[in-house]
Amino acid sequence: MMSVLHDLGSPGPGMKKATDLMSSDVTMASGWAHALSSVRDKPLIRCQNCTKSTEEIGPNANFMACSVCKTKLNFVVHYCSQ
């Protein structure tokens, strides 16, 4: 889904027919605008302990990453300070 939205948001030469079709149809254009507005700039992060997301905790949520997991296992484990 993300790659399709990226291709439509930053169309290359092969996407001209698709973007022209979307521009000519008002219903499709409004759906497209809604879809783009719901796409996140950053991935959703959840705490591994309480499973709350940044949206559930609040705008000042501070997530930490376990440095041992990151360096030894090449896997990032996020946890919040609550």
Condensed summary:
The protein is mainly alpha-helical and 82 residues long.
How would you summarize the topology of this molecule?
Elements: H1 2-9, H2 16-24, H3 26-38, H4 54-57, E1 63-65, H5 67-72, E2 78-80
Antiparallel strand pairs: 1-2
Please characterize this protein's 3D structure.
It is a single chain. This protein has 82 residues and is mainly alpha-helical. Strands 1-2 form a two-stranded antiparallel ribbon. The protein has two domains: 2-38, no CATH class; 42-82, no CATH class. It starts with a helix and ends with a strand. The protein contains five helices and two strands; from the N terminus they run ααααβαβ. Helices cover 49% and strands 7% of the residues. 2% of the residues are buried. The model has no long low-confidence stretch (mean pLDDT 75).
By helix and strand content, what is the structural category?
A: mainly alpha
- Would you list the SSEs in sequence order as H and E? HHHHEHE
Low-pLDDT residue intervals, each spanning 5 or more residues: none
Shape, per Cα inertia axes: elongated
Portion in strands: 5-15%
Helix content: 40-55%
Number of domains: 2
> CA-to-CA gap between the ends?
33 Å
What is the CA-based Rg, rounded?
19 Å
Give the strand order, joined by hyphens, for the main sheet.
Answer: 1-2
Tally of DSSP helical segments? 5
Largest sheet: 2 strands, antiparallel
Task: Identify the notable features of this structure and list them briefly.
2 domains; mainly alpha; 82 residues
